[in-house]
Sequence to fold (381 residues):
Amino acid sequence: MDLDISDEDLVFAERLWTWLSENVEPQWLDRCTDYDDYVAEQDRWEKLLTGSRWAGVWWPKEHGGMGATPAQRAIYAEMTARLGAPEGSGKTGRRMLGPAVMRYGTPEQQEWVLPGILEGKHVWCQSFSEPDAGSDVASIRTRARRDGDAYVLNGSKIWTSHAQHATHSFILVRTGTGGDKHGGVSILLIDMDSPGIDIRPIQQIIGMPDYSEVFYDDVVVPAGRLLGSENQGWEIARYIMRYERGAVMVFDTLVRIERHLEGFARSVGESSFHRTALGRSAAKLAASRLLAYRVLGQQVEGGDPTDAGSIAKLYWSLTWLELGKAAQAATGELGLVAEPLTPEDTVLRGFFGSRPMTIGGGTVEIQRNIIAKRVLGLPTS
Ligand SMILES: Cc1cc2nc3c(=O)[nH]c(=O)nc-3n(C[C@H](O)[C@H](O)[C@H](O)COP(=O)(O)OP(=O)(O)OC[C@H]3O[C@@H](n4cnc5c(N)ncnc54)[C@H](O)[C@@H]3O)c2cc1C
Fold:
């Protein structure tokens, strides 16, 4: 990847630095004592982003984006990571759905979806997983039956992140009737306030009802909301999932891991045993950052993220898990009774937050399968 910095890039970097310095509040995460605070911080950041030109930094100019050069994208990724900017409540739309609509959407869908994301009017969630279809998501049973100019949806989804705050969802549904499970699914773009949708948040152990179970009972969706063609859903879902593991996601997550590392460093004291664990995690985090640059490089050169993003996802999620365990061991029982906003509390949140990261976006085992099959081209049984 060519990351030579031009004069134009330096001007970009200066403008971005000024804007971020004026707008990012570095301690925003520490201020969050509950889920509502967290959501409010994400909303605050989303408003700032979408009220500026920076929301479109990853998007091409023809779709309302900034059309940033490769070097500028790297500068953006690194700078927002360094200053610890939040992800923003519209991240799923900006990072995952937007690129898919640019590629597969009709002109009408592009005119509706893309400005809605860039202007902060719509918040999208991803509705793929079901109780018996997570890793094997092509086995979904939520069905959309064509009825005249509409589809009628019935079924349920689970683990839908921030469903209760989303205005819209891209949902993977079964439309085919044949035996080919991959060939019989489609993606629909739905309004979350449609009659027949019942959202039930799931309370997590750290008090964040971040995911929901969502039930669909005769939900009517206009046929014009089909993304791509009928039964093309598996191809589009894979495209979206590659963006889910792509460069922009990796940099943001690394910042969150860095914050937990800082919490660990504050609570670890002088114990050489724990300081060794701290050093090991710091080194692995540095390696994760280099992997993130590799993913960014491939994304910039090839246009779309590749399955190689799975290598970075595998590595950073295992690094976070190891860090979470080490930090929890170092704080001992204090870490289990921590008061909010103490170093032990940061450690506790990091510990409980690490395991889901080895599952969301595809589990460790699934990433290994992808790397074996699609990156290394190993024979499969
Ligand atoms: C933080 C987080 C956010 C999420 N957000 C969303 C979201 O917004 N939208 C959404 O649709 N879903 C979301 N999910 C759900 C997530 O995609 C699924 O949890 C994940 O794909 C695993 O599916 P499962 O939970 O059904 O586990 P299962 O698929 O039942 O897996 C159970 C175990 O079996 C292993 N396994 C399964 N198949 C294989 C195989 N072929 N080879 C080897 N091992 C295998 C798995 O690795 C795992 O250890 C989220 C999950 C998390 C944790």
Observations:
- Residues 125-129, 134-135, 159-161, 211, 356, 359-360, 362-363, 365-366, 369 surround flavin-adenine dinucleotide (CB under 6 Å).
